[in-house]
Amino acid sequence: MMRNVQGILKMLILSTVVTVFVLACSKNNSYNNSTPSTTNNYTISGTASGSNMVPAVSGNGSATISGNYNSNTHMLSYTTNWSGLSGPPTGGGFFYAAAGSNGSAIGALWTFDSTAIAKSTISGQMTLTAEQAQWLTSGNWYYVMGTATNPYGEVRGQINAKTQ
Q: CA–CA separation, 93 vs 97, rounded Å?
């Protein structure tokens, strides 16, 4: 009887080892046969002017934006340069809408302190939701820079996102 119990225990242990091995191999094979996830990195760019505002704003102000969006980390990094504004920027930010129409703010608006000047640079980062990333990569983001003279925006630029 003792031999039967030992034999049954050996069979149970052996079958458990074989089962674990088979499961490990099948998991490994399904991984190897699957398509690896791809990370799309995007370069963003856009030029802003008063004529892009809705309605248009006259003036000599302009701005540019450049940066990157990493779809794996969901991180957007950007740098905006501006010059020729009617005065120091008082605010700005990202918005969701197609070119030619006004939209809704995306994320926190940019604020500037009393040291801001009419020609300068701002850099930042933000983590995007899946919906925000889809808007960005489909060309439905724009940015605005406002001044005391034009608090709702003196220059506007649609953002282009291209895969690297």
A: 13
Q: Give the count of domains, the chain.
A: 2
3-class SS of residue 36: coil
pTM: 0.75
Q: Which two tokens stand for residue 131?
A: 């919906």
Residues 14, 62 within the same domain: no
* Residue 111 sits in the same domain as residue 156: yes
Give, for 142, the enclosing helix (H) or strand (E): strand 141-147
- Whether residue 151 is found in the same domain as residue 74: yes
Residues 67 and 107 placed together within one structural domain of the fold: yes
- Enter the DSSP assignment of 138: T
Q: Do 54 and 11 fall into the same domain?
A: no
In which domain, by residue range, is 133 found?
A: 41-163
**One pLDDT digit (tens) per residue for the chain, 164 residues:** 555 545 444 443 434 333 333 334 444 443 334 344 566 899 999 999 999 999 999 999 999 999 999 999 999 999 999 999 999 999 999 999 999 999 999 999 999 988 899 899 999 999 999 999 999 999 999 999 999 999 999 999 999 999 98
Angle formed at CA 142 by CA 136 and CA 143, multiple of 5 degrees: 125
